[in-house]
Amino acid sequence: MKRAMNLMAAAILTASSSMVFAQTDLSLWYHGAGNDKEKSVLTGIINDFNGSQDDWKVNLAEFPQESYNESVVAAALSGKLPDILDVDGPLMPNWAWSKYLTPLEITDEDVKDFLPGTIGRYDGKIYSVGLWDAAVALFARKSVLEKHELRIPTLDKPWSLDEFNTAINTLKMDKDFEYPLDLGLAWKGEWYAYAFGPLLQSWGGDLMDVEKPTAEGVLNGDEAMAFGEWWQNLFTKKLVPGTSQDGADRETGFLDGKYAMQWNGNWAALAALEKFGDDLLFLPAPDMGKGPKIGAASWQFGVSGSSKNQKGANDFIRFAMQDKYLANFSNATGLIPATAAAAKMTENYKEGGKLSVFYALTDKQATKRAVTPAYNVATLEFEKALSDIANGADVADTLDAATDAINKDLEKNKNYK
Amino acid sequence: MTDGKPKSQNKVGWLMALPASSLIILFLIVPFLLAFWFSFTNQRLVSPNPTEFVGWSNFSDLMGVGSLTIDPKRDAEGKPVYKANGDIQYPRMRTFTRNNPDYEHLQGMREWFSIPLSNDRKWVVLAKDALFMKALTNTLLFVAIVAPIQAGLALLLALLINQKLPGINLFRTIYFMPVVISIVVVSILWRFIYDGENGLLNAILGFLSFGLFEPVDWLGNPSTALGSIMAMSIWQGVGFHMIIWLSGLQTIPGSLYEAAALEGAKRWQVFRYVTWPGLRNTAVLIMVVITMQAFALFAQVDVMTRGGPVDSTQSLVFQSVQRGYEKQDIAGGSAIAVVLFLMVLSISLIQRYMSRDRS
């Protein structure tokens, strides 16, 4: 791939004598193949960067998201990583530990205006910077809540656990809906840790204690057990659709009026707004006891450890961090711009903008997933445990099994030291 | 001259075998030897830590088992305490297996299965890796059910289409079609068929029973998921084995059937004394091939259930891939691959021995 790009670049260079010959090629890998809007923003940044100086020339290679991580692992195994690559936030510590990524030359001063979830820090160093973040909210309809005389929660006073339970049990009685709430279990993979991990954290549990490190007493402690029992109850009482939910129902169930409420991300917000308009509410996460929390950290840019052009790669990332590019990305994708200044420049996130509530949600509730190289195993175990508990497995035994599997992985990797 | 010719033919022969055999060496034999080596180390897919030799520990982690006899909770009179649903209440297994100094040897194990004993006591077998054990039993069950049914159905189909009727090739094509389609595509289609809410299977069963049939979430229910995958796998693979049976059937000389007809043999007698003995070698081949294919159960699980719900469709190959690639534990995945290899090898050898030519 890279070679083909280089050949192409060489062909273009020889064809047009007006091109600058001194520019060194930098390769950039991106996970969003197939998304034309993202591509046009990204190529816009790349063209601006290539035109702004004479030293570096960035070349873009795109991959489909499903196989992106595997492509990076395969490239790392064969020593063919690009200079700049993007990485899913929680996976960054693993790639940093494996030395796929190297610390950026970007300082705290450079990122002081950025949302905390967009900065990938590991071992005291900045390894990755995101141009946007994503946020999750409880999609609901004002008319439905008012019909059932449910209090409409606010960012300052979200629903308590009791209020949340009352709400879904009340809505269960409404025969207009198949389910009072949809959590989206049709979306396998990282969605589970991203969307439900913060609920566990709000109960007082977590995937693991990163400092010690161990999952014992954290993923299978009393708070996690209580979370597990509550989680299982959602399914035994048929308050939410289970793991065999149809993917199409996840996409359109809330819009079609099958589900009264939906736990969903800001990427789905515009479609819902189009359908319900002013009736639509984006409610904050309920407070299960230890504060209301939603997941933070989306895709971010980093520099590969094997890159010979560290300076150019860092220059590019710093160039891309300008507010106007953050705003362009947000306008194209609906994602949350990483700085307040950029938010002001966007259609949806400026003050009074249709999605500005998500900026506030991220600012107030966003919590990072466990920052550890052990994350890529922990997230798999967490997904399996949640699925098994939803399907009726014993809560304590299932969480114990996940705990043991995570600890075993820590042991096999010498605690990722 | 007579000596030289075979030699040069040999040379040409080796040369012609070279591309295929070098591919086999590169993609089958070398990876297998590597897997064998990895299973004795702590090799990771990616890690800055150096690889170390760890002896048998990957295997003892996989196959370690322990057992325990436990008493139910009893009241003051020594009668067992019952739970709300009428089951006898036993102490939780985690009180023994987690940080209990009196049961050091059971640390971290999980219940695999239990056998009731007299006086309401029960004998519990625990496994260090209950997930592997579940995958092992599922795979063995899959082989034990799929191999004979698939072979039998394939023979039946082969007998049906081994007739000289007009349009018989159409049926051959139809039966063979699922084999040609990629297993991944077939799995995705069957996921729609098995869908719990608006799947084809539920709709047909509901129609046939005049709406009496309660829709079942075939792949989402732990008690039906493995059976559903078995049924689909049998359907998918049956055409391939039908063709092998068919080729066997067509090697039986027609004169034997004519002789049988002259002797006045009934249809069953013809099958029992002419067809079946003629299919002997084909039968051995088919059983070995089906068994090996069934042990390699992976794509259906990966696409349709990913081992769930509650581990009811875990399989050895799926676990091997999941550990080796997704959890980046190449050593653990390789250990499962080695165990699987030894199992398939010994079963094939036993099959070979039992079906040997005794004459």
Describe the structure.
Chain B: Belongs to the binding-protein-dependent transport system permease family. Chain B: This is Sugar ABC transporter permease. Chain B: It holds the Pfam family BPD_transp_1. Chain B: InterPro entries: ABC_transporter_permease (IPR051393), MetI-like (IPR000515), MetI-like_sf (IPR035906). The complex is a heterodimer of chains A (417) and B (359). Chain A is of the alpha/beta class and 417 residues long. Helices cover 43% and strands 16% of the residues of chain A. Chain A has 16 helices and 15 strands. The longest helix of chain A is centred in the C-terminal third of the chain and has 18 residues. The radius of gyration of chain A is 22 Å and the shape is globular. Chain B has two domains: 63 residues, no CATH class; 224 residues, Orthogonal Bundle (MetI-like fold). In chain B, strand 2 and strand 3 form a beta hairpin. In chain B, helix 5 crosses helix 8 and helix 13 packs antiparallel against helix 14. The interface between A and B is medium-sized, with 32 and 36 residues.
Quaternary structure annotation: heterodimer
- Give the CATH H-level superfamily of the largest domain in chain B: MetI-like
- Rg from alpha-carbon coordinates of chain A: 22 Å
Q: State the domain count of chain B.
A: 2
Strand order of the largest sheet of chain B: 1-3-2
Indicate the mean pLDDT of chain B.
88
Signal peptide (chain A): 1-22
GO molecular function, one term (chain A): maltose binding
Family (chain A): Belongs to the bacterial solute-binding protein 1 family.
Keywords (chain A): Signal, Transport
